[in-house]
Amino acid sequence: MDQLIDFDGMALFVKVVEHGSLSAAGRAVGMPKATVSRQLALLEQRLGAPLLHRSTRALSLTDVGRRYFARIRPIVRDAELAQVEAMASHAVPSGLLRVSATVAYGQLVIAPKLFGFLERHSAVNIDLRLSDERVNLVAGGYDLAIRMGVLDDSELISRKLDTVPMVLVASPAYVEVHGAPRRAEDLSRHRAIVTRIDIDHWNIGEETVRIAWRMSTGNMFVTRDAVRAGLGIALVPLFLVSHELAQGSLLQLLPEQSLPETQVTAVYARSVTPSLALNALLESLQPEP
Asked: Does Heme appear among the keywords (predicted)?
């Protein structure tokens, strides 16, 4: 007699492995830990082999479980995508999206885009958390994170959102007292404001200049305010100071020099199948043509 395939058990087993625990998998699918454990036990009973080594502290795959996971993970992934596509044909974006973003970019660039997104999608709620610390998407329960700079996590799926130009700035008061640098090497004789103490080398044109920082702020807004107060020169993203440059409260230095650009990327976990709401949000965050 043909046996029916336990697709629900397969999908739940994949979630447990990807999330690392029964509790985390249960939270991801809205199921109590006891139910997750019972469903996995039924799956193992149908297969006639244990899939996981269970202990009070951790889970690990058996040899059978490792082979089984490798075979069914692509199947479960394709099934989830097919379900999302089918539902998208008649559904509207809905549900809660938890989003993490860096403080300055999140406040100045991402938040205004989210306002417009929420106006267009009344059935979606967004929990936005701003932090310059890189959060763990799976452990923190985040659907999406907006990150600046180089990505080094192969477990994340990324989508480029923007390329941010950098500018060198100082206050008119600072320039009046200390003068403006005319060449890249002049920067080594000026005082600098940095956001992190490890950023003590600036790439200016084809040169790398070691700078002497006077203050490390830990926050881009504080960096901007320290420069406005005349404490030194800073290399910052253009979006952070565009208003001040237009008003004249900050001056752009060495505008003829080429400066590095910073890439902004939206990332989500490979273990997550993007919902209709998440796909709609990703599209809305793309730069305007």
From this structure: no
Above 80 in pLDDT, residue 89?
A: no
pLDDT tens column, 90-149: 678 889 999 999 999 999 999 999 999 999 999 999 999 999 888 888 888 899 999 987
Model's pTM, two decimal places? Answer: 0.68
* Topology agreement, domain 95-161+263-284 and domain 164-260: yes
Amino acid letter, residue 13 = F
Start-to-end CA span in the chain (Å): 58
Band the pLDDT of 27: cuts 50, 70, 90.
confident
User: Considering the domain 164-260 in this protein, what is its CATH number?
Assistant: 3.40.190.10
Domain covering 7-88, topology: Arc Repressor Mutant, subunit A (1.10.10)
* Domain locations in the chain as residue ranges: 7-88, 95-161+263-284, 164-260
Does CATH place domain 95-161+263-284 in 3.40.190.10?
Answer: yes
CA distance linking residue 18 with residue 44, whole number of Å: 18
Write out pLDDT tens, residues 140-183. 889 999 998 777 666 788 889 999 999 999 999 999 999 999 99
